[in-house]
């Protein structure tokens, strides 16, 4: 890729945002930031209790992600974050206009299976339904790619890198 991009790996819980984000940083040779680490403690407490976050709850988190992305402009970086709704992505983009979103998506049964195996994470499986209900996939005018999460993490990461290269190629042609 011609210049380091700042990439937000997005999707509902259980799609592998952290796993793919970490593998992607190794391929792109840029730093990684775990989006969950940007949540205020009150948000983590709410989600741990099985309570879905409101838009108001998400604002400081989205602003923190945008601030991190802005600082990485021109340097590159990967950060994970659900970014489920267009308004959330627009809020991050307002702070860091050049970012690119990678939407990890997959079959609900596969995601539920992965969540059932996950241990030590504050996000309960019960919130998957509310996240799926809130999800607004990337729209054609948004800088980003959608990648299916079937397969192993290495395969998914290769698909992400290929999709980002194709996006960059098509953007350069326009």
UniProtKB/TrEMBL annotation:
Catalytic activity, reaction form: D-gluconate + ATP = 6-phospho-D-gluconate + ADP + H(+)
Keywords annotated in UniProt: ATP-binding, Gluconate utilization, Kinase, Nucleotide-binding, Transferase
MF-aspect GO terms: ATP binding; gluconokinase activity
GO BP annotation list: D-gluconate metabolic process
Name under which the protein is recorded: Gluconokinase
Chain ranges passing through the membrane: none
Signal sequence, start to end: none
Pathway info: Carbohydrate acid metabolism
Entries under InterPro entries matching the protein: P-loop_NTPase, Therm_gnt_kin
Gene3D superfamilies reported in the protein's UniProt record: P-loop containing nucleotide triphosphate hydrolases
Entry's family note: Belongs to the gluconokinase GntK/GntV family.
GO cellular component: cytoplasm
EC number(s) reported in the record: 2.7.1.12
Superkingdom, natural source: Bacteria
NCBIfam families cross-referenced by the UniProt entry: therm_gnt_kin
């Amino acid at each position: 890729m011609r210049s380091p991009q700042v990439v937000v790996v997005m999707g509902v819980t259980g799609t592998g945002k952290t796993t793919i984000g970490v593998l992607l940083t190794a391929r792109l040779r840029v730093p990684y930031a775990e989006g969950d680490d940007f949540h205020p403690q009150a948000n983590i407490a709410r989600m741990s209790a099985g309570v879905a976050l409101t838009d108001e709850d998400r604002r400081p988190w989205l602003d923190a992600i945008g601030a991190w992305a802005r600082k990485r402009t021109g340097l590159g970086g990967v950060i994970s974050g659900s970014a489920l709704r267009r308004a959330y992505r627009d809020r991050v983009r307002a702070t860091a206009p050049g970012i690119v979103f990678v939407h990890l998506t997959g079959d609900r049964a596969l995601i539920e299976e992965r969540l059932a195996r996950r241990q030590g994470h504050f996000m309960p499986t019960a919130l998957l339904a509310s996240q799926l209900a809130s999800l607004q996939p990337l729209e054609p005018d948004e800088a980003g790619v959608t990648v299916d999460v079937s397969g192993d993490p290495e395969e998914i990461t290769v698909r992400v890198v290929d999709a980002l290269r194709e996006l960059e190629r098509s953007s350069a042609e326009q």
